[in-house]
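Researcher: Structure for this, please.
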Amino acid sequence: MKKKQKTPVSTKNPKGQRLFGKVNMILFVLALLFLGAGYYCLMQEPADGVLSLTVAPIILVICYLILFPLAILYKRKEK
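Model: Predicted structure, token format:
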């Protein structure tokens, strides 16, 4: 019995261009940094302080609802 060869997963679309460009990767890394900063603010004491109750949730919401979708969906306009 012959083994089926797995087709390699490619990060390029049929035109040969990458699916995620340099700007997308920069936005993704920025989102990861904001995510880390948000969780860092969340674990600061006191637990009922301004940083962990107000600032951290705002950073995390911005990260999850704006930065990550922007990093995935951003596409540079073609000339």
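Researcher: Any notable elements?
Model: Residues 28-73 form one domain. Helices lie at 22-42, 50-73.
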